[in-house]
User: Fold Glutamate-1-semialdehyde 2,1-aminomutase from Microbacterium deminutum.
Amino acid sequence: MAAVTTTNDAEFARARAAMPGGVNSPVRAFGSVGATPRFLVSASGARVTDVEGREYVDLVGSWGPAILGHAHPAVVKAVQDAASRGLGFGASTPGETELAELVEARIARPASEPARPIERLRLVSTGTEATMTAIRLARGATRRDLIVKFAGHYHGHSDGLLAEAGSGVATLALPGSAGVPAAIAAQTLVIPYNDVDVVREVFATRGADIAAIIVEAAPANMGIVPPQRGFNAAIARIAHAHGALLILDEVLTGFRAGPAGWWGIDPVPFAPDLFTFGKVIGGGLPLAALGGSAQLMDQLAPLGPVYQAGTLSGNPLAVAAGLATLRALDTAAYARIDAASAAIADAAADALTAQGVAHRVQRAGSLFSIAFADTPPHDYETVKAQDAFRYPPFFRAMLDAGVSLPPSVFEAWFVSAAHDDRAVGQITDALPAAARAAAAA
Ligand code: PMP
Assistant:
């Protein structure tokens, strides 16, 4: 291990003097959990190590990408090999085609129509770019301007998508963002989640002007709030009946909820027009994507009039990491993630029950989070009504015990295939004290 030459507090003080809030993404500041963010220097498998040499069992997983565990040997080797051939060319590479073919083959559901809804994929660098481009494409294809978005859903930080957003916007209790022109915000209609009647109403009044509905396949940025059975299929039908598109945001759920994302396991099959991916698809490096039918996707430049571009799009290191990650994500890996998730979620529920703390384990496939509520939240209002004040002491007790949870009650707990029995055991051992802290809050 490297010699310890600094303290975490010293690193945070230095970072705050050099960068806004000392961070490059807001929730990393730990503001809502009343703790000092840990400055990390290395990570391996289910564990991360901070600048003081302290090790934590990690349930942040780089916010999703580290699904195989940190620094998975096959992924690291693929990146090293790619790096030795050049860091980027700004030209097409065979790997990009391979990755597109792999995604197109994986997002398949034999009993569905169309069985393979992605015929073309475009690689970008972040989830924000993927959803931003999907929206531009939907607007270009339909020649309409309005977008329907659900309160509490997070689709990245582009202007039109920050209204009543989840993730850090929810953690900081912001209605949206300063700096978004009112004229742009007015193009986004924000409605409550899981209520098909409201979707019907908004289309009944504005349907001719709506380009698309954008939806998290299974929302995970206000904690987990699973779609009610058939919700995605219902909103797809409504959108299509009005000539609008459905953009299924699988940036977080894609290749995590299962080999074909949430779409592959949603109990009622449906046909989105565009998919967006991020996180797992890049295996820890900056890579994201959008995909759909050839007819729709070919409206992107250079073939069509909808412009999108990127200096680093399809970067060969990111593509290598993505390919290695998807190849390693086999049935056995998903089974391990499912089993570890279930064990951790059940242990958290048991610990909280033992302390009489009202809670609900919110699940969507192997994704889960804990809501401090008597009844399962089903939309942003009910999510916000929970006893969120119980989370900071719970979080800090887990951190003290060497377990790194997401620093907000509005985030999923990210389990990886590297969470073996020992890692799960360390988490379950830490839970009773954390539940006591939550009870005392
Ligand atoms: N969509 C969803 C569903 C997400 O969870 C996120 C990130 N958490 C994004 C989009 C934005 O992705 P990025 O942070 O890579 O821009």
About this structure: Residues 84-328 form a domain with the Aspartate Aminotransferase; domain 2 fold (CATH 3.40.640.10).
